[in-house]
Amino acid sequence: MEQNTEKVKVLIVGSGPSGYTAAIYAARAGLKPVLYTGGQPGGQLTTTNDVENFPGYPEGINGPAMMMDLQKQAERFGTDLRYGMVTDVDFSNYPHKITVDEKNEVLAESVVIATGATAKYLGLDSEAKFLNKGVSACAVCDGFFYKGKDVAVVGGGDSAAEEATYLANLCPKVYLIVRRDELRASKIMQQRVENTPNIEILWNTETQEILGNEEVEAMRVVNNKTNEVKEIPVSGFFVAIGHQPNTEVFKDYLEMDDQGYIRVENGSTKTNVEGVFATGDAADKVYRQAITAAGTGCMGALDAEKFLAAKEMEVLS
Questions:
Q1: Could you report the per-residue pLDDT of 211-228, keeping only the tens digit for each?
Q2: How buried is residue 200: exposed, middle or buried, by Cβ count under 10 Å (0-12/13-18/19+)?
Q3: Which residues are catalytic, by number?
Q4: The domain at 4-118+243-316 falls in which architecture?
Q5: In terms of Cα–Cα distance, which of 75, 86, 93 is closest to 11?
Q6: What is the pLDDT averaged over residues 253-264?
Q7: I need a labelling partner for 274 at 20 to 30 A (CA). Which of 28, 63, 178, 263 fits?
Q8: Domain 121-239 belongs to what topology?
Q9: For the chain, which residues make up each domain, given as ranges?
Q10: 227: alpha, beta or left, given left = phi > 0 and alpha = psi -120 to 50?
């Protein structure tokens, strides 16, 4: 199949808060960025109904509407926004070669990666049915909506322990569903959970079904040692079994941790490959918020701009 090759100064891969923010900064700097949206234009926030913790929206905003605002702002300054998926990269030479939709080749002088991460879910049909109707993968994002209500968190690691203790400040009762007889969380997080009186740990327990009509009303769980089945009333069901960074296509070239998050230099977005910068949830496994993703998107664009200016100085000298 014949390939179409073009050259660009800044290629942005991904379109969540980090990708769009990088595009706004790069476009305003006159770098004429090209942005490929990826398989989920707008990223994780397009699956969120209400965003109330992003500065500048005092009344809150619908997630997809917020992403459309960011997209329009990026396009206003001249971002070339395209729908497509990066399917292959070659960072062994410069400029960097990126293949989109298995057919179009782009030679990029700089690359800003903003591919994000995908929350892992249990895989229940009812989980998908009640997504944003009681089911969430982010307590910091959505916990406020369940203030004064009983909720459940599923998971046994640090993320689940953090989500449970966070929700315990808002909710009268938090059930922590752990499929084993111990937590995988660090000792300090285990102690926090154990010392929080309104967290009840359901050991050796797995979720069979999430129940409700329009919204979550209860969960059916089973003890995998005794086979005892219970239905427990809850209004919120938080899944905290981890995230999968969308970085597989870069694994042959970029340094990553054992979970697949791209390693960056401390205080920057620089990766181990010159001219390639990682932003947002593709590199951040700690905060994973829209506002921090936007912040690193800004950093990625500024890092790319500085890199390109240094390259031009090399040519001139």
A1: 999 999 999 999 999 999
A2: middle
A3: 138, 141-142
A4: 3-Layer(bba) Sandwich (3.50)
A5: 86
A6: 97
A7: 28
A8: FAD/NAD(P)-binding domain (3.50.50)
A9: 4-118+243-316, 121-239
A10: left
